[in-house]
């Protein structure tokens, strides 16, 4: 879909004021322009968000659902913006982050760019690897992981939950039999991880769905997503990656949904390092806000 935070910001104003004129005054926007933006948002979401009448704009059920998610994004973004300057002001030197490639491709670049904007002397390195990082060997200063390690002198902090769903390209769906329930999945080509290269049980999504055969498999999330975008088949994707996949949509959302978590892993000795602690604080706040923002757009 083609929606962004600016669309959601305008939507919030219209929903709260229940009129284009009232929202236009707050936003200093012409009501006609605002009306066109709401039409564009409805088209992007393929949903009717408002019931229009002489009395104003009333939210539909779809609008109420979007309102709750948009308000959560708004709160998270305000919190992140408020936290980042105090947490990161004056950081310098090099910080290396290890992460699985889903997080490394779709979350860390924009979060770290925001931190770097406030700290021009800071060098951030993102190492995307489909395996667990060894902080004891100093492969990275900190790592994002999909499960909490139970051994080693490590400090573990839960960052946030995130959601995953089955996705497919519009082109694939148009060219293949319909997918209305779980049984239909057996007739479709599946994209996923190479089974014997899954480095964390939390990534074994397809087993949870009873799909044993993976005709198109890679240890890279990016390769899987490109296969799906090109119409190769159906697969599991993070909701936060869906806005970056034009022409791809979630399927069977009322029947299949997975929830996983990201954890920030640091070496225990680094707790006494104020520079790394300030960066970790900013990184955690930024990741939470970005997951909420992107999931609201999925």
TrEMBL record:
Transmembrane segments: none annotated. The keyword S-adenosyl-L-methionine does not apply. This is LysR family transcriptional regulator. It comes from Roseobacter sinensis. It holds the Pfam family HTH_1. InterPro entries: LysR-type_TF_proteobact-type (IPR058163), LysR_HTH_N (IPR000847), LysR_subst-bd (IPR005119), WH-like_DNA-bd_sf (IPR036388), WH_DNA-bd_sf (IPR036390). Belongs to the LysR transcriptional regulatory family. PANTHER family: HTH-TYPE TRANSCRIPTIONAL REGULATOR, TRANSCRIPTIONAL REGULATORY PROTEIN. The keyword Plastid does not apply. Keywords: DNA-binding, Transcription, Transcription regulation. Residues 1-60 form the HTH lysR-type domain.
